[in-house]
Amino acid sequence: MSAPATTAPALPTLPREDYARLEQRGQAGAVPAIPNSAVADRWHTDYPGWRGRYWAWIGEDDTVLRLRPINVARQSTARAA
């Protein structure tokens, strides 16, 4: 009997504009801004789809922000009219 498959936690991909707003408020940044590389090492293990570049404080409910890895959209999703 094989072990049950585990599902990787959800990994948010933020539009570049949302990331820029969070970064201005100090709520997001580039991975080198995290002094403890063990955090990034664990994120690579726990979030296989993570590109390894960005983090953000993400609200999981109304009162708690958690430091999480994020991906940032490569291009703006808005289209010119």
Low-confidence stretches: none
Order of helices and strands: EHEHEE
**What percent of residues adopt helix (DSSP H or I)?**
10-25%
Category by helix and strand content:
alpha+beta
Averaged pLDDT:
83
State the separation between the terminal residues, measured CA to CA: 56 Å
- What overall form do the CA principal axes indicate? globular
Measured by DSSP, the beta-strand proportion falls in 15-25%
The count of β-strands is: 4
Number of helices: 2
Radius of gyration: 15 Å
Record the strand order, biggest sheet: 1-4-3-2
The profile of the biggest β sheet is: 4 strands, mixed
Descriptive account of the structure:
With 81 residues, the chain is α+β, with helices and mostly antiparallel strands. It contains 2 helices and 4 strands. The chain has helices spanning 16-24, 37-46; strands at residues 13-14, 28-30, 54-59, 65-72. A 4-stranded mixed sheet has the order 1-4-3-2, covered by helices on one side. Strand 3 and strand 4 form a beta hairpin. The longest helix has 10 residues, at 37-46. It is globular. The N and C termini lie far apart (56 Å). The mean pLDDT is 83.
Question: Which characteristics define this entry?
Answer:
four-stranded mixed β-sheet; 81 residues; globular
Summarize the SSE layout with pairings.
Elements: E1 13-14, H1 16-24, E2 28-30, H2 37-46, E3 54-59, E4 65-72
Parallel strand pairs: 1-4
Antiparallel strand pairs: 2-3, 3-4
